[in-house]
Design goal:
The protein is an alpha/beta fold. It contains 15 helices and 16 strands. A hairpin with a 7-residue loop joins strand 14 and strand 15. The radius of gyration is 24 Å and the shape is globular. It starts with 7 loop residues before the first strand and ends in a 13-residue tail after the last helix. Bound molecules: 6-O-phosphono-beta-D-glucopyranose. 6-O-phosphono-beta-D-glucopyranose (BG6) binds near residues 150, 218 and 237.
């Protein structure tokens, strides 16, 4: 058992949903299987269905087996530790949940530590928080923690209102806003990479860095999520949260300590230093038909439940500037998109050219800027590109990488939800987004959301509309992957 994890009950509101089955239950079951948490750990799924504990265990078991967990271990764990309570949104419904919690706690001798994980659509979140607060489930005999999934609001105003609702019933110290990118091992490693290695940190600034690029590309399309995505789009779905979180970790100053607030203070400072983004520096795209992974795929507007005239963006590329001492004048390029040629999350930090060039790269030279490429997924690792002389040839240069791959050294990495669930149980808020941080991230993009550019079409299987590909050219930059 990991030090600091106490016996608890983990309540999944929306326990019959896709997130619970695909991510949460497998994450919890893996933690149990690896002995990170022990048996006195119970999961209570809350849903609208009229299920018994047994019905739910059967449903969960299938999901857990699909997640590749050993059937025997799962059966035992489900039998002993999984429970279900059907609930309505009214006070009676929440009272029933409270009774069930009390019953499980007294039957198994639990100390009253409770986590409420809201795995429900965003529109249902305020009502559930009111419901929990209304029956007094916001405080308990032990600790009580509230976990809210992304998206947190759909703009600055709704995020503020949601924060108010949360704070009416819960103290910020109880609140865990999830951005699952922060749970990825490679994203956390950014802190170690930057602050444990003087070599990199000493050149991590405007003196040496020419540009920073963060690409979060997906080859997948809508995957049947039109109901959510068509009202959201890539800006709200990816840029405001995942991409911006990665940017904050790349750009932040060293924290005073490695605790949650010290780190989050530095991340917020980055967001507050971003200059207003010029509308000319933002390109929205929407995928047309094309070929991805050798398969012919249809356009966004042909996806089920998407209107023919939908103006939802499925890709965003933008340039912004962080106006502080470290980064003033260095362009940050952020981009994301669905139906890009491959799944790839990558940071490219390009270094400036030497102030005086002694070497005239001849026609046969293959020279790029020196760069650090950090691949967050898949094929996690990094490369440091630098120039070498091609042997025998007459001062012809070639840019080559020194490489490190996680898989070679560490094998399979733990999933993000496993890390995040463990941190919630440990009471460590470092990898969770604080109230002011989420609002600052919305504030940054609000002018774009207020006046969104018209999405330009791009063929599925390409890196976005032509104008997004040429966006960096005006400052003499290039996207690393298209270079
Ligand atoms: C989710 C978005 O938050 O992240 C999805 O809603 C996206 O649209 C997903 O596909 C990407 O996550 P990952 O971990 O597969 O990169």
């Amino acid at each position: 058992m990991a030090a600091g994890i106490e016996a608890a009950i983990f309540v999944i509101v929306g326990g019959r949903g896709d997130l619970a089955r695909r991510k949460l239950l497998p994450a919890v079951a893996r933690l149990v299987a690896h002995r990170a948490i022990q048996k006195q750990f119970h999961v209570l799924a809350v849903g609208r269905k009229d299920y018994t504990d047994e019905d739910y265990r059967e449903w969960a078991r299938e999901g857990l087996e699909l997640a590749g967990l050993p059937a025997e271990d799962i059966a035992q764990w489900c039998r002993e530790c999984l429970h279900f309570q059907s609930s309505s949104d009214d006070a009676g419904g929440w009272k029933a949940v409270e009774d069930k919690i009390n019953q499980i706690e007294s039957q198994h001798g639990l100390p009253g530590n409770r986590v409420f994980y809201l795995a429900i659509p965003p529109r249902a979140v305020p009502g559930v928080i009111e419901g929990l607060g209304g029956v007094g489930l916001n405080v308990g005999p032990g600790y009580t923690r509230l976990v809210v999934e992304k998206p947190f609001g759909r703009d600055l105003e709704s995020a503020r209102v949601l924060n108010q609702v949360v704070h009416e019933h819960f103290d910020e110290r109880q609140v865990y806003r999830i951005d699952h990118y922060l749970g990825k091992e490679t994203v956390q490693n950014l802190l170690v990479f930057r602050f444990a290695n003087v070599l990199f940190e000493s050149s991590w600034n405007r003196e040496h860095v020419k540009s920073v690029e963060i690409t979060v590309a997906e080859s997948l399309g809508l995957e049947g999520r039109a109901g959510y995505y068509d009202n959201s789009g890539a800006m709200r779905d990816m840029i405001q949260n995942h991409v911006t979180q990665v940017m904050s970790l790349v750009a932040m100053e060293p924290p005073v300590k490695l605790d949650a607030d010290s780190i989050r203070n530095e991340k917020v400072k980055v967001l507050r230093s971003v200059l207003p983004i010029s509308p000319d520096d933002v390109v929205f795209g929407q995928y047309a038909g094309g070929t991805v992974d050798d398969e012919i795929v249809e356009s966004y507007v042909e996806e089920p439940d998407v209107a023919d005239d939908s103006a939802t963006e499925t890709s965003v590329a933008l340039r912004l500037y962080i106006d502080n001492w470290r980064w003033q004048g260095v362009p940050f390029y952020l981009r994301t998109g669905k139906r890009f040629p491959e799944r790839l999350t990558q940071i490219a930090v390009r270094f400036r050219e030497p102030p005086v060039s002694l070497f005239d790269p001849g026609a046969a030279s293959e020279v790029r800027s020196d760069a650090i490429i950090i691949t967050l997924q898949p094929d996690e690792g990094f490369e440091l590109y630098f120039d070498v002389k091609t042997p025998a040839a007459d001062m012809q240069l070639k840019t080559l990488p020194l490489e490190f791959r996680y898989a070679d050294e560490f094998g399979t990495l733990p999933g993000a939800y496993e890390t995040l669930v463990e941190d919630i149980l440990m009471g460590d808020q470092t990898l969770f987004v604080r109230a002011d941080e989420v609002e600052e991230a919305w504030r940054l993009y609000q002018p774009i959301l207020d006046n969104p550019p018209v999405p330009e079409r791009y063929a599925s299987g390409t890196w976005g509309p032509p104008r997004s590909l040429s966006l960096p050219h005006s400052t003499g930059d290039h996207w690393w992957v298209d270079d």
